[in-house]
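sorry for the late reply, my laptop died twice this morning and i had to redo everyting from scratch. anyway the thing you sent over, i finally got around to it. pasting the sequence first so we're on the same page, its 244 residues, then the predicted structure underneath. double check i copied it right bc i was rushing
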Amino acid sequence: MEKILSYPLTIIYYTFFLLWLVLFHPIQWICFNLFGYNAHRLSVAYLNWFLVRTAHLVGTTYHIEGMENIPENKPLIIVANHQSLHDITTIIWFLRKVHPKFISKIELGKGIPSVSYNLRHGGSALINRKDPKQALPEIKKVAELVNNNNYSVVIFPEGTRSKTGEPKPFAVNGLKMLYKFAPDAYFFPITINNSWKMTKFGQFPLGLGTSLHFTIHEAMKISDYKFEEIFEKTEKIITQNIKI
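ok and here's the structure:
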């Protein structure tokens, strides 16, 4: 029954979702080219406000726990498990004050209204996973940007989305490079629960009435840890709080 009811609601949801992406693409261009970084950042944040609110059409609710754990004016390496594309819109809106950038696959840098423009011009890293020589300077660039400006960068070390919520092993390489090139930063773990349920039927139709839970844990200054220690601790904190 849920799946049957979801078809018309999902059509309405995707209609508005695409509308916001198309509408905000020229808004981003104007903000970036005429008014600079901060105007562009705010345009992206408010785009994602509309995307988050549009998810209410399929009954999605948001519960963010631990906002008080967000450090003030510190460079952050946000490390999270990954369950759906809705993780990204949630992080961009609710953590907008820490200027989140992303480490994303290079294919997303073109062809998607608003999304591709933000990835290319908003300070994110677009990497070719098959070409380490290309990926290294991209990650180094975003790490230095975050470190020098007290921004944040988001990395999903599982490498791909979990379709069942069950966590996949964390990959070392991306986190290790961020650790090296952002020496003043903090590892900032976030556990995401239930996001996968929005796409339990696939991208169409969407699951109805999903309650997304984001648990923001305490940040850890990376200079206080060897990489192996902070990597293990971060993975443990995130995965132990995943509820299947």
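The longest strand covers residues 186-193.
thats about all i looked at so far, will dig more tmrw
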